[in-house]
What does this fold into?
Amino acid sequence: MAQTLQLLVPIAGIVAILFALYLARDVLSRDKGPQAMQDVGDIIREGADAFVKRQYTTIAVLAVVAAVVIGIVIALVENEAVADVPKLAGAPIGALTAFAFLVGAACSMASGIIGMTISVRSNVRTAAAARRSLVEAVQVAMRGGAVSGFLVVALSLLGVWGIFTLYQALFSDIGIEQAPFLIVGFGFGASFVALFAQLGGGIYTKAADVGSDLVGKVEKGIPEDDPRNAGVIADLVGDNVGDCAGRGADLFESTAAENIGAMILGVAVYKIASDAGWANPEAWIFFPLVVRAFGLLATIVAVAFFIRGKEDEDPMNILNRGYWVTAGLSVVGLGFTTYVMMQTGTATGANGMPAWLWFFFAGIVGLLTSVAFVYITQFYTAGGFRPVREIAEASKTGPATNIISGTAVGYETTAVTAITIGIALIASHWLGEQAGLVNTKTGANVGGIFGTAVATMGMLMTTAYILAMDTFGPITDNAGGVAEFSRAEAGAREITDRLDAVGNTTKALTKGYAIASASLAAFLLFSAYIDKVNLILGNQIEAGKQGVKLLTSVNLANVNVFVAALIAAMLVYFFSSLAIRAVGTTAQAIIVEVRRQFREMPGIMDYTQKPDYARVVDITTRAALREMVAPGIVAVAAPIIVGLLLGYEAVAGFLMVGTIAGVLLATVLNNGGGAWDNAKKYIESGNLKDENGNVLGKGSDAHAAAVVGDTVGDPFKDTAGPSLHVLVKLIATITLVLAPLFIR
Amino acid sequence: MAQTLQLLVPIAGIVAILFALYLARDVLSRDKGPQAMQDVGDIIREGADAFVKRQYTTIAVLAVVAAVVIGIVIALVENEAVADVPKLAGAPIGALTAFAFLVGAACSMASGIIGMTISVRSNVRTAAAARRSLVEAVQVAMRGGAVSGFLVVALSLLGVWGIFTLYQALFSDIGIEQAPFLIVGFGFGASFVALFAQLGGGIYTKAADVGSDLVGKVEKGIPEDDPRNAGVIADLVGDNVGDCAGRGADLFESTAAENIGAMILGVAVYKIASDAGWANPEAWIFFPLVVRAFGLLATIVAVAFFIRGKEDEDPMNILNRGYWVTAGLSVVGLGFTTYVMMQTGTATGANGMPAWLWFFFAGIVGLLTSVAFVYITQFYTAGGFRPVREIAEASKTGPATNIISGTAVGYETTAVTAITIGIALIASHWLGEQAGLVNTKTGANVGGIFGTAVATMGMLMTTAYILAMDTFGPITDNAGGVAEFSRAEAGAREITDRLDAVGNTTKALTKGYAIASASLAAFLLFSAYIDKVNLILGNQIEAGKQGVKLLTSVNLANVNVFVAALIAAMLVYFFSSLAIRAVGTTAQAIIVEVRRQFREMPGIMDYTQKPDYARVVDITTRAALREMVAPGIVAVAAPIIVGLLLGYEAVAGFLMVGTIAGVLLATVLNNGGGAWDNAKKYIESGNLKDENGNVLGKGSDAHAAAVVGDTVGDPFKDTAGPSLHVLVKLIATITLVLAPLFIR
It folds into this structure.
């Protein structure tokens, strides 16, 4: 039974891809609206395609170079480290790692490119659908978004499963307990692509947004998305390349890295299971993949059958309904999988309860944590609650108090975030410990850490759905732009405005979800790193190398570890500084060009001349690609330099403290930015009043102050924050792959 | 010889206090200028005295309550933990800790109150001296500031030495190796007072600054420090209570905590020295105090003889000259002290070099680090360099880009800060290891960590001088205000303006210095915490308690430690959020009152009515004292809760990661704020030009944008940042004192 269940992984992966293709066909077959809409849609599509082509060409070149370097370095170092251990020396480790890296990079690129191709075609169709029906518009946008969601999760699942299976088939001397270590290259490849995709896309989108707004809205006083603004198309393109392609790459990486990390932790349980003679010990290694497969199936059901509702319903309700269906079915799948795969013979855990039940509870903790984050993010960034109201009130005394207040809110959000993560970790660790998975040789209880792995898996079961909701955001944002730009009828614009507001919320939710998963994953990947280091050290001990001891603890009181931790905490600030500055530099280039067009083409303002949109798109593309290099290199180089200078124990400290610092700073940036954004919207909706009860709406000084806050928040929440998610996971995969380099 | 040298501690302390009294008398005997100046001076003095009286009354009550609680808790818990160990059980540990706490609190309060009393009397005398001579004005301000500097360092030295000597004299069963642990209460008392002094003062000063500027400068368009602004006196009072009393308490705490931490580390060396039969083993424990005594003497020479120069000289040169004299004499004192006190008989360190020489080098590393920080801070916050220029340029496109750019600069400054600290730690640790202080029983080389202690001591030798320069800042700032307010002659105002600019630089330097010392100290206090925990665990083992093991490493892979680290990193954001919000709330109260006065007393604008300054001072006082409570309680409670819930190893992780996160966030806030401030000044000095070469000065849109950045930076750099310094050291002393509570 447990073995049959393993087959579900390729089956669910392929079904999900087929379903994504069906959704793509369905979306593409829909009405594209009147010619004016189609024209705008075409311009956006061309701009996005051009950027993505150039961006992914650059990334592909970088990835191939990196793969070659990694392959050679690993071959040199790891063969030396494990030279006398026949089990691993039989396989060409360097080549296998490099190949896995390339496959990971390719899958990530493929899901990004295809997903975006669909999303830039869904926008105009959503706008067209909005001319007829709200529900139809929701369906088009959600189905377009789901293409990304399914591709990301399915390709990552199939990639990990495929390489795992392939390597075991090709090299008979690779045991199942070594195989997970050989596929970490896949995760590294995915992180590598994600880093540049998120940085390049994030810089593009916010530079275009800030740059065109500063000239159009602030200097010329014309509305957002006005066709007279030469930067407007770049702005619309940016929504796709940043929010959509960037976040897809981010979650592709999460999915891959966390699957691999959980499989590595499964190895420890596998050893106990084989020693004890339980049936199907390898089920403990495959478990993470099977759980994710059930998550995919649950999402297919939700997207296919539950995205429907009434015309006068709040569109958020429709999306929420689908989410709860996904989560509910996931619980069932989780229970079934743990029951089938976590059989421990006659052994039971604490209170005589079976091990699988304890792990099922741990998985529920993970699911609940993701739900908690959905509500936490809403409280801090949605208009009705205290934080956003506070920022709006502070806007009355000008931009300075708006910024001070927003900063305080951003900082404040770390409290409930950290406490929730802390509770989830301790609870799932405790539940795992109760399962009673004790290694009889060493006396170590490996259930605790595996419990946190199961919680992570539980949380990630709904990834495809969350990602679909996330991509819903840029599609509806674009649909609104298309409607405005093509001067569509008022009814359609009203619907796209409502969807856009919902899209802002779903985008914020995804960030909360991404943060939560990154933090749980951190602890998991950290443990995987320690396991990997000990695998190498163990080989050295077996080979008779003198003075080698296993790494049983990471000692913060060691000066090298402390300094590495300090450098890691610094890295997240420094990296964010580079990312934020890159937005500023790129925006400056756009501002100069848009101003030039207004000055040299005086007919633009009275619609007698058409601005040169393509030129702005081109300038933004070049600047964003140039600016993504520096932060990217810093992120890749820092852990390697620390490892080479300070050693493998210091790297563990680097990893742990870097994760903590990165997760918290990302929380500050994402939530602060989201709150500023919605404080502006709160004022625009007429909710702010002066002491005499008069509404302070659009055009008031308070609104101008709130616009400043919104602009400040843009690079925080859409460039630096999301890039930090990637950074956190990148340092984990990079050190996992290069661990042999840090061991002398 | 080594024993004679120990006598230098009380002698230098008393000499420094006498010298401070001489300086105070000298300053007070000077000319107070015309009646108009004296009137303003009187109002400021009354406001400051009123605030300090109420603030310190509140703090005193809190401190007495805390002392009683601490005494009782420690008595209950520690006696239980060490019940069967006669050596310590003979002394009433709870009472001794509580007494030390009260003495520490009292000394800190005394140095704060006396220092401020002099500084609010120096301002008017500096303004009066500026009517005659630049050099005389520098002398008055520097001497007034030096009163604080000497009192802080001397009282902390005498306090630690006095309690240490007293406890040994009173209880013959307290060995010299236990005594340092009993005086940690002194450090805790100092931290406790510092926390509230810095928070209350920081909130007061920035709320008054922001509040009166927003109404006066922005709404009414009248200059800063204009007598028509009802908030102006509160602003001038704020400079004294925040910058002067707050920073004094901050550095008093540093001095005390670091002395005690270094003495605790000296205990480990003492044991080696006694086992090996070296002469004067207790010299290793007294060493930190003797080095500091030499630092005091060096500063006396510099202040007495080297604060002089030419009328047309840059005043910064005069102050720098004094600093270099202090640093140079400190090197001599350091060399002499290490040579006399660090004698190891015939044993030598690496390369056959004597131990004292290696430690002398480690001390030099500390001195060089403090010099490096002086230059780093200048690069990032002074007008001539790239960072400030970048912010000024960004102001051309409005407040949003100004804020984005300033944030990027603030984040960027963490890089060089962390790398410098890392190099200092690793270098001094390495140098200390070379000294060859190996415990023959355990094989542990205790020299490394003692090397970092010596580096910290080296860095802190110049504290009194640095603090004098720091207090120079608020005195000259106030002198400028007094000159403006009393409409003094242009020549005097020109001189006070020059001094004010220098004061801004020295204030920024002190913050860099405080950060550097906090980070080095963190590693030291962290080690002291481990020593203390092991003292208790060792007692339990000696008493035959089962299952107890010494704490040899702090394992980040332990889930409790990881969660504690996460909470610690969160705490620094949450605490800053509360502090920043407190400024906003207090400023709001001031804005309402100043607006009311303008509205209800129409004669103010044409000078026919006098605003009610006292009322604003009173409102600010009450609001600031109310608002300091929440962040203060959070800071005190968090480490205790973590310790009780997660245990003593988790506390170690909390301490370490909290320090790292706190130091880096303080760097971001201090330097970002400083850079914004100086970007505004850069524009006001006419250095910013548009593309056609026209100056964009005061009154331009760029200047308005820079004012927004400056206002945002105010609570960052003068409330939250400095309060974080205190927080970092508070969590160290609090956990050091309460360690027995966390051991089950």
